[in-house]
Fold these 4 entries.
Entry 1:
Amino acid sequence: MFRISTKATKLFTRDGSFFERRKCATLSKLSSLVDIKPEVREALRASPQSVVALESTIITHGMPYPHNLETALQVEQIVRDKGAIPATIGIVGGRIQIGIEGDRLAKLAGSDNRHTIKTSRRDLAYVLSNGLDGGTTVAGTLLIADMVGIRVFATGGIGGVHRGGENSMDVSADLVELGRTPVAVVSSGVKSILDIPRTLEYLETQGVCVASYQCADLDFPAFYTRSSGSMAAYNLSNAAEAAAMIKTNCALGLRSGFLIGVPIPAEYSLDRKVIDEVIEQALAEADRLGIRGKDVTPHILAAVSKITKGRSLESNKALIKNNASVAAEIAVELANIESSASDAPRRPSSKRAPVVIGGSIVDTCITVLEDDLKLNN
């Protein structure tokens, strides 16, 4: 028998990787469900702040093959070129993948998305227990990234309040997860197909800090277009400013996250009026066909791509690459801040001897290397 502290403890999984959490019992159960790519594992050991999480529904449901696989690999390389480590998150064969190996990434990209589940918090237990494949949504990726201490996450656009959501109550779980997960999501704002003003109001209610990136007028982007007509609460001028905000959020112990809106590169921006008309047509068609819930977004994205003759797909590729570049710059700055803090000289200790009244209690944190460790409950 031995006692494990409830403070953050490192527990090694079968492949040598670890998770840092407060409850070791949770860790011991989770370790049997997760694979971490060696490149990511080493980065998490050395500097978790330098890792950038990437979601996988872009691969499984957001783009057609082979564009999805090509883009996923290019995005990972962009993150590396900026000095950070990419961690694409998804589910293969009922196991969470944090950093998906090449063959598994190809499997997700090439699979029939009718047999690959868009996986949010509500779906995780079902997908894992049934040994299925899943593309993690923004919410699902946020949850998993937080489990291992990743603080920066790049995606295309987040979900939100659907048009007519005041009647249907169709609100993406992404918004709730952002309100309870201290991770910064770098995106091109909220998907254009959604009710952006109501989405921003909902995020405010959830305590999520929403900021534009390098937009002095606070104009919040709308995925395919650089402007949504809605304003962000703040503007971040550069990666260092964003990293300082994330660091402060962690120091305060706040459990809410950030949404950082990066406008799509100007040369790939689409005409806002045209996009709105296309979306209205696609929404009407979805309603006529009885398409509901999480199936609406893929339907509308496909319709937009068809009507814009593929230009929207190129825009989608461009914005996710740009977001990954910005996220990597923020992660590198965050790692630098953490490194500087750890290297700072300590304050001289007092020469006075400490006085202990009553007694002292020592909590011991341990590192477990055995593969088959079982806790005695």
Entry 2:
Amino acid sequence: MPPGKKPIGCRWVYKTKYNADGTIERYKARLVAKGYTQQERIDYLDTFSPVAKLTTVRLLIALAASNNWFLHQLDVDNAFLHGDLNEEVYMEPPPGLNTHKEGQSKSDHSLFIKGTSTDFTALLVYVDDIILAGNSMTEINSIKTLLHNKFQIKNLGELKYFLGLEVARSKKGIHLCQRKYALDILKETGMLGCKPSSTPFLCDTNTLYRADSYLDDPGSYRQLIGKLLYLTNTRPDLCFSINLLSQFMKSPTNHHYRAVQHVLRYIKSKPSEGLFFGVDSQVHIKAFSDSDWATCPNTRRSTTRFCVFLGSSLISWKSKKQSTVSRSSTEAKYRALAAIVCEIQWLHYLLQDLQVREAGTPALYCDNKSARHIAHNQSFHERTKHIELDCHVVREKIQANLLRLLPVRSDEQLADVFTKFPHRVRFKSIVPKLGLVSIHHPA
């Protein structure tokens, strides 16, 4: 940038980089745009890049499978970021400039859409990796040429490997897994030759809450949990176990590490298992909501669990401890309902941005009769006054015909696998219903 020039609506952040011996190596400066959300002494020095949500990635791939869209991948060469700027840079729109962002999704700001009367193309950005999806190869090639003329782009052809996710396509659909990533974890931990396990959880979890036998170096445990958390992007069957073990990263014990080793033995049994998005899957949202109640012996908080399908394709799921203590199982279930309703609303907006019409009203299944009654009841009373906000959220969306709240038998509740450790036989019956399959031979 020319001397004396400063982009409008920004300020500089200065940082000193030191050598290993404590001497100063160099001084660094970074430009922070006005309107940022970073806070000093918290994340003020962090650098952020456009990152698409993994749910958006799965949704786009599921739609590509059911609509027979082309799927291609691009990579941006970052060399252009180190060039000199010879013009004034605006970090905020100058007065009088029209800032209408046509083509950018409001639900995910890393998603861009271009549609005509006959063609549709979607571009999804994750830092410097790009997915191109659409029904016209001519339009996709045109966008590739346009991007290459503006930036330095590597054309990687059909989507095969994205963010560690392996994509395999056939006439039946698209398979998404992290086989190489899983095998790398097993190799790094020395568990590549271990004895496989049929489930990812131990029969007795009481030892996880014992305050003894702390690890001398908790760093290796934390690093391993972090890697396994990323593996859950295609392995929802690991979600509950890893979520539980991640709650002990502050002071892990040998009991926790043995539990992680048991998870690794389960991964060894099916390293290539992943999500399958079939070509015959309908564009209809179907969700299952569940929660436990006060099962954490330390905090007595409940855990919200849900999973969302697009037809037969699993695209979203969550296993998260609730922020407050629920005073009844109905309250815990209802807080879970409020969370899944917000997720369905967001997916509804995302499908609208992708110009995809849903086949019918989304269906939400809940196995708690009291929670369903509160959702349909127009009046509040003392039992529900403390969860009034969640009640309004769920009931408002039901009345707006965003979704239908339906009953489901407890033995057909697919969210059980995100809520608790089900019986081994039940666990094996749920996993295939989540759309998890393996297309490789066992390791």
Entry 3:
Amino acid sequence: MQRLEEARSMSCQLAHSKDHPRVRKSPSDSSSSSSSSANESLRHERLSRLNSSGMSDLSNDTTGNHAESYFSRRENRLSARKKAEEEMARNDYKKMYEKALVTNQRLKSRLETSKQELVVIQEQLQRAQQKERKSELGSTMLETEKKDSRSLTKKISEMEEQVKVKAELHTENQRLKDENGALIRVITKLSK
């Protein structure tokens, strides 16, 4: 009789728990997994207590079936909750993965833009270096041209000097030839 009263009070508690909705816990809540394992162990303990207390004799009794159906429904609800939590966790990971993909795509596009800018800047730098080399070459060429013109001017002045000297030597040579011719004529007149 006492066992029947315990089974009835248990079914009343079950009916009372059906009336009150449960608050769903987030997947990050670590207590949900520990509470579900505690609930399962509690359920097994109650079932074993019911079976050991002679409820197996009353298997046709509606309260015994009621308790077993309660436990099976509760187990189904717990497994459904666990699946839902796993699905939420998967969805969270999926959202995180999608966010990471979007971030990666954005960073890749920025990297490509930066690479293109780098190529443009390198081309501009090369052009500037080429202009600088050309200007250096131009200034070097101007410098060499100036040196060449100075050396040519020097050579011209030296050649003008040599021409003057040659002209003087030529006139001197002509004078000496004339004197020599005159001397030869004098000598020939004297020898006759």
Entry 4:
Amino acid sequence: MERNVSFPFNSTSLPTHFALVTADGINATVKPFSVFDGCDHQVEAILFDLTLQCINIVVGIPANLLVIAILIRNHKEPSTSDIYLGCLAFMDAYFGVMSPINLLNLYLWNSKGVWSAVKFSYGVKDTSGPLFLSCICLDRFVAVLFPIAFGQHKHVKYRISLSVVVLCLTFAYSGAKTVGGLPNFEKVFTGEVLATFIWMVVCNVSILWTLKRPRSSGKDEMHPMKKKAFKIVYSILCIIVFNYLPPVALFPFEDHYSPDVFRCYVQPTGFAFLNISSTTQPLVYLARLEKVPFLSDTCVKTCCIRVSAENKKKSPAQNSSV
């Protein structure tokens, strides 16, 4: 029988009962269902992932709900990327809500039905994050490098259509991940995250290079709007490198690891960095805001770890122009 080398939490196929069949066709022993699926004694990397998921529960869920509330509050003056940000925040909040259910199922319920629901949430996380971030990068890329085309396709219907396509891909991938049994299905995620990572890095580096170029007047000072766009793109690039570089660097070399090492150590470590993006993404968005509604400045500085020393030195006029 081919060995399943997928990570027990983000795995493609459900752990199943294995039966030993005697010569008379009678089942002799049955392996009990376990969500750890063979990694019961190699749990260090799994516990590392669960620790980061606890951060998603405590910090990520409130941060994503706050992002959604801010986007709804500002719906009369929306940014072109707001629909992508809203979908991303909703999916991250959903994934965070599923984390305590996953923990309870690991140590209390040990239910196959609950595990299927948890696997679906992992599929949503695997796909929605990279794809919606790619949409944001595409939006910024066209806005900076092709402003005329951006103005012609600025209507919200284009972004709604693209969001629907992303959601369909997300739910199709999540459904297939929940059902399981597809050969080499884990390579779909490896190909997806590798392609989106390259695309996002190329987009953001191109944008940063374009924004950094001096204006035709010869002045080195960057226009305030360009400076704001530069900060946004730079923050997205930091998220991409921190959260997506580990799986991109580890997963393509699956054949170089033993099955147990890849399943119990390499995959949980890579997915841990991907999963914590449910916290880093909303915090980076909130940190970019000059004023966060519903929260005091002290709370924002504490929760978002915002470095505001330079901003305090600036005049109010300077702050409003950035």
